[in-house]
């Protein structure tokens, strides 16, 4: 799996929702109790999404060290697939601790890749009873893994876009500004909060300016991340300054006092914010002779 995307499992929302829809279809088509997706970590495989029809065999969040998983056998297979009618009778799988833990027999799994060809994890099905899977069954599961890879790409692109939409600009040593543009939903709020706090810690920021002039108010609600961010910055010893407050934002704050309730410093413009902290913005004219 590519390391450029640092999403946690919960951020693969499209993959999760899409797989839940497909799992029931897979279960009926292949006549199995359980279908699931794993994600490969540094040293382990973790179940990201699962479906259990009549009984729970494998829960979401179930994690096993990579060397002791069926996933290792799938990924290392040149066909990117592994199947057996009875895990307890195969020499390699019968010796794995996970076989005793799960108590399953019939198994089929294929490699799940991202759109760049990197290994994301596996797509697997299993059952308590012995099950023989045909070549068509393997092709069927592999075709569905191709669909899921598009969902992986979508989630990664969504994450990347949200990350890029946190444009922090260093003004001078210890002073930076974030211009919040557009709509800020819950997912983007989390990205903004995490990214800004990490940035301030790494770059030893002592004053952080938040410009709200481009913020779009959705459903007459001021995003809580603004007040949460200001409060978190204070805890870290960073001075927050809010600028660019529009009439719409001011009216929203009259109703819920998110900003005034925390006694956050607010100024009308970036120039005024810089003046408050002892800097001035000057225009330089280059004159050609």
Automatic annotation (TrEMBL):
Ranges of residues in domain STAS: 165-277
PROSITE patterns: STAS
Protein's recorded name: Anti-anti-sigma factor
InterPro entries given in the database record: Bact_StressResp_Reg, GAF, GAF-like_dom_sf, STAS_dom, STAS_dom_sf
Source organism (scientific name): Jeotgalibacillus salarius
Pfam families, sorted: GAF, STAS
Highest taxon of the lineage: Bacteria
